[in-house]
Amino acid sequence: MATPETGSRATVHAASVDQGNPAALWAAFTQTRSIPARENLFRHYLPYAQAIAARLFAGRLRDDVDFGDFLQLALVGLLESIDRFDPDQAVAFETFCTPRVKGSVLDGVERLTDAQGQISFMRRAQRERIASLNSGIEGGGEKHQDTFQRFAHLAAGLAIGYMLDDTGMLADDGERPADAISPWQGIAWRQTRERLAAAMTALPERDRRLVQYHYFYGLQFEQIADILGVSRPRISQLHRAALAQLKRLLGNRQRLYVKG
Fold first, then answer.
1. Which end of the chain is more exposed for a tag (fewer CB within 10 A), N or C?
2. What residue ranges do the domains of the chain occupy?
3. pLDDT for 152-171, tens place per residue?
4. Close Cβ partners of 104 (under 8 Å, ≥ 6 residues apart)
């Protein structure tokens, strides 16, 4: 696991590395063992782990585990592989990590299917999101709000989260089957995607990465905290702030189309 970042030097060093050069990324991580360098590696290999998850999901024999669980387990395996890989050995990282990512997925899916009471990824994610949004209502300056205002605040945050879930803006189109929608729905949804994409670009860099990790790649708050090198409560705070910022940027939600 990467060591906590000790200052801006590690961040600047990681940012200066060519993100498309895996050898440079590994050299930076080996030299500093910093959280930013580790995250750069994670982001570089994330599409590879995502493709493994998609192939395993396509060949599944059961339908009681969602793709979100496959993807989350693959990314857990990717993080573990990054922490354990020795770039000085004469083996490519993809060769090293592939069986570990597959093993993480297959072992995790087996545990999920064997436990009848296991909560699915989406239910776990919704529980985290509700707790995050509720903490903003109960712990900040919004105590004066009446029940209706509290409900409206929570509903608005969850609605934006639902739209982020359904956009799949970072997922390859071929990795998930598209829902059949009418032509007018397709136009409305495309406009919603465009507005969400524009709003996402206006978020601070760390908030944008948090939203991507959670909504597009299915990572839980605890795993995002590990990647970004902050506490889980801090991730909950940042999540709440990011959704509030997206709400302000999107404006009137009646002009947005939500599938369902």
1. C
2. 8-114, 121-255
3. 555 555 566 666 665 554 34
4. 73, 74, 76, 77, 80
